[in-house]
Amino acid sequence: MDCITRLVDLFGSQAAVARALQVDRAVxxxxxxxGYVPARWATEVERxxxxxxxxxxxxxxxxxxxxxxxxSRPDHVPxxxxxxLESMALFALPxxxxxxxxxxxxxxxxxxxxxxxxxxxxxxxxAIGYLDPVFVEMxxxxxxxxxxxxxxRNPLTFPLSGPGSVGMExxxxxxxxxxxxxxxxxxxxxxxxxxxxVVRAGGxxxxxxxxxxxxxxxxxxxxxxxxxxxxxxxxxxHAETSxxxxxxxxxxxxxxxQHDALVIVDAVTSLGGSPVKxxxxxxxxVYSASQKCLSCTPGLSPVxxxxxxxxxxxxxxxxxxxxxxxxxxxLGYWGETTRTYHHTAPTNSLLGLHEALLLIxxxxxxxxxxxxxxxxxxxxxxxxxxxxxxxxAPDHQLPQMNAVRCPDGIxxxxxxxxxxxxxxxxxxxxxxxxxxxxWRFGLMGYSCRPDNVTLCLSALGSVLNDMGYPVSVGNxxxxxxxxxxxxxxxxxxRKRSAA
Length: 499
Known about the structure:
This protein is an alpha/beta fold. The chain has helices at residues 3-11, 14-21, 25-34, 42-48, 55-65, 86-89, 117-123, 133-150, 164-175, 189-200, 218-227, 249-258, 278-281, 307-315, 327-334, 347-363, 365-385, 412-423, 450-466, 475-498; strands at residues 106-107, 156-161, 181-186, 204-209, 231-237, 239-240, 245-246, 262-266, 285-287, 300-305, 401-405, 425-426, 428-429, 438-442. The mean pLDDT is 92.
């Protein structure tokens, strides 16, 4: 059966095919008469049919019906590779590859998050040059939007081309010279990565180890800085993704400054989901990532640097050992007046980040923080109604990253696998010493919605019940709805009192 006949059979009529492909019905009628679909429609046919008619089938049929003759080929060979040279055949793939269409997932892990349709649409716009005057104008708007998200007036606030790990490395490469003493506060995986960066930059690390799942202790930092008065930098994670624990960035920064040290702050998971107030807390170097509470595509790392940081970097006598991450070179690309070529920026990803930040501004930053808190309270009520325990004490729990202990006798990996295969729901596993012991439920950005909370509780309860864990069906969802109702009532009472 030819492709056009299969297409009509699938949709039921020529008119339905025309509507699906957004062409005139006469066009489809012509295809039926000639007996094939033109090759240029191959990928679109595959898309609208959900791959039930493969693009390669359309191409093969079109090539057979109306072969293209080229001078370099004999008349009997149609256009397309029919016979490969032996040397080319060595690199042939073991299977036929078609266009990739990812499944629709509910993403409630540690990132990435689901992406708002407006952001996806923006990223699909035509590409333009990274020095195009229109794009340069957008870059200035993007810097302003990031200043709003970071709550800062720092001129040097921009997105690095690369994931959050690039933001981390950028901070250490520029602020840590060989021999500099750096206090590294570790209470999870990403504090450990900070330590690795200090060592690779040639710094002298002083480590303050904490139990995973507990915040950084300001008193221990104070004592350590008293013992090491020559400390140049203090580094810590504001919101530890591996444990769901938040630390008091304002207090830690104040202590560091009292000892004449700058601070490097990991805000990868906190930016957009919890208060991050760079100017008020006097944070020096802060980095984040685009794929968490900002709900953009992975691959960008928003950063913000105080004037103190810029001056220290400019005064360095040694050369920054990374060309790509040299702040002095990037100043010319993201500066306020000039645009000097540095690298080819990921233009469409930056357009997406612009739209994602615009969504946050339209919602209002404080409203975004409140939304994350509200849905965290509901999810927590449901999880605790199942008898599950949180890893972190209530005062330090992150609303956007919920670490929950796996009950004894339950295979945590099997639970995650079944949630993904049966409910298309992704949650995160534990890392390091917490591997196999906890689940991480993300409520970040566009994924932070009441329908996701309800789906998560219902799906998790179903899987745990099947595995023999005592769960009363419906109790978790009822607890979440009760929490929502209580919060709505409290909000209404506050509004009445204010009026």
